[in-house]
């Protein structure tokens, strides 16, 4: 599984979402051509992306929707429970906590944190919002797999450092800043510090989406469009 | 400017965000190596991505932060005003309307729409929330460049169709569904209908971010990591 481009992982996520929609419509068969059209890529791309992870479907026969869906769920690691804390419970944190579908994939919110005395102590989705300074103690007593950052931009780096210090190794950053790993000088070179080495940061950035949209709205001919190919 | 991969556009957006952070720290010079480390890609990738759009910087001298930033702003079309409507003014729509930074890029909210009588008539950021059935009339009397969809998943396709019918050609979809263009049968083939042909849909999907994070947290060795290279 070496050298799988990150864009392929993003596309797998899109294929999975399409398979869920097909299943909701009681459609039980699909093909790389069908998936490609719905995802806005080529059928060759679909087959190549899936081939990184094994052989799915039968040549010339397409795919069985629930089977391919189950396989993608497994590949993406969504068949296990992920315990999640949210740092920042303003409008954005609350929108995240209430975003539909997270619990379908066993993303379970186990702790909600803020610094605002007006929010701390409120109950949201059955959890009491805690002060972020209680995070280290919380992670000592509870398994936390992932941390979601929903704080203002100027607080995001500190929130990330707090999560990493508390032992959280997967971060989803909703703030419009690039989180930087802590670096140390070692033998005259800047190196990523040990506690950051295994940390994964993914971003959900509203502004990035707006900027991509602006670019493609001005340059629609540059948008990759599906080419109909034979299966 | 043909055949620029969508991943390159996403990376340009990341480089721009890094340049903004450098500028905020009063750092006036950078290099492809520096940008690469901060973005988590290779310096070769940075140079290749920038080369699609012209020659920036001087060989061996790196880049001047404000100049490269200005050029990326221009390339992405962010030096013009974008008039935006939001469809769906629940928690998510309100989080979007209040997300910091949108106005820095001249994304201007000009209309807010919902179907909930409890929300219609409320004033949010100086605008009165209107019923979504008033959207066609609104777009006849106001320039609308982009529409942001923040409705529940089962309403997203209808919201997109409403925007397209009202003449909006750029859509940012925050709902966790894949928006499908309307198709028509023509000569036995399914074809994308004329009004959808020029429509750009970009997605900001919280769940997609969560799924990518789950995958990379399980498979950290597959995360593209920067390779230090000489400029």
From TrEMBL, chains A, B:
It is found in: Cytoplasm. Keywords: Cytoplasm, DNA-binding, NAD, Repressor, Transcription, Transcription regulation. Residues 14-53 bind DNA. Residues 77-178 form the CoA-binding domain. SUPFAM superfamilies: NAD(P)-binding Rossmann-fold domains, Winged helix' DNA-binding domain. Pfam families: CoA_binding, Put_DNA-bind_N. NCBIfam families: PRK05472.2-3 (NF003994), PRK05472.2-4 (NF003995), PRK05472.2-5 (NF003996). HAMAP family: Rex. Belongs to the transcriptional regulatory Rex family. This is Redox-sensing transcriptional repressor Rex. The lineage of its organism: Bacteria, Thermotogati, Deinococcota, Deinococci, Deinococcales.
């Amino acid at each position: 599984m070496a050298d799988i481009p990150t864009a392929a992982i993003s596309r797998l996520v899109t294929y999975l979402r399409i398979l869920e929609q097909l299943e909701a419509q009681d459609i039980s068969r699909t093909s790389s051509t069908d998936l490609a059209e719905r995802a806005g890529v080529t059928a060759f791309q679909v087959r190549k992306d899936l081939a990184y992870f094994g052989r799915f479907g039968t040549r010339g026969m397409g795919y069985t929707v629930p089977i391919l869906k189950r396989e993608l769920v497994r590949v993406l690691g969504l068949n296990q429970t992920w315990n999640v804390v949210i740092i920042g419970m303003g409008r954005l944190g609350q929108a995240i906590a209430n975003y539909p579908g997270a619990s379908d994939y066993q993303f379970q919110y186990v702790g909600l944190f803020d610094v605002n005395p007006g929010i701390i102590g409120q109950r949201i989705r059955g959890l009491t919002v805690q002060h972020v300074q209680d995070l280290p103690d919380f992670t000592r007593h509870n398994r936390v797999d992932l941390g979601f950052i929903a704080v203002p931009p100027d607080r995001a780096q500190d929130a990330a450092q707090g999560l990493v210090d508390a032992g959280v190794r997967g971060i989803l950053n909703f703030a419009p800043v690039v989180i930087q790993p802590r670096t140390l000088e070692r033998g005259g070179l800047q190196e990523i510090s040990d506690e950051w080495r295994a940390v994964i940061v993914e971003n959900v950035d509203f502004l990035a989406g707006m900027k991509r949209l602006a670019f493609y709205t001005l340059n629609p001919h540059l948008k990759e469009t599906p080419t109909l190919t034979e299966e």
